[in-house]
């Protein structure tokens, strides 16, 4: 059963974030930190993600997203609340949309 203290955040990451392993990096980090959700590339050149987990861990993930993997250059991370259902207990990569 999902804990009431879980946060669900929707992220749009802008900058040099495609072609640099951003999705795989975020999936690896999220799995390590026990965060659920998904990530995908957008045709606009941005990366979109939903992260679900304990508040402290979600804040940590968002801070990591602001710097990204080694070859990325993050310009902006837009953060919003979401009520999206994600009924899987893992973090996955979705196809580009």
As a whole number of angstroms, the C-alpha radius of gyration is 12 Å
Residue share in helix: 10-25%
Q: Can you identify the CATH class?
A: Alpha Beta
Largest sheet: 5 strands, mixed
Strand order of the largest sheet: 4-1-3-2-5
Instruction: Give helix and strand order, one letter per element, not per position.
Output: EHEEHEE
Number-wise, the strands total 5
Shape: globular
Q: In angstroms, what separates the terminal alpha carbons?
A: 30 Å
Low-confidence stretches: none
Structural class: alpha+beta
Whole-number tally of structural domains: 1
- Into which percentage range does the β-strand content fall? 35-45%
Number of helices: 2
Give the second-level CATH assignment, the architecture.
2-Layer Sandwich
Mean pLDDT metric: 94
- CATH topology (level 3) name: Alpha-Beta Plaits
């Amino acid at each position: 059963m999902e804990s009431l203290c879980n946060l669900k955040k929707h992220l749009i990451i802008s900058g040099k974030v495609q072609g640099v392993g951003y999705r795989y990096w975020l999936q690896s980090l999220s799995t390590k930190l026990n965060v659920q959700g998904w990530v995908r590339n957008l045709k606009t050149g941005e990366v979109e993600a939903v992260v679900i987990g304990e508040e402290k861990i979600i804040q940590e993930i968002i801070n990591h997203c602001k710097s990204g993997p080694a070859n990325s250059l993050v310009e902006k991370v837009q953060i919003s609340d979401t009520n999206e259902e994600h009924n899987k207990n893992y973090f996955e990569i979705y196809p580009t949309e």
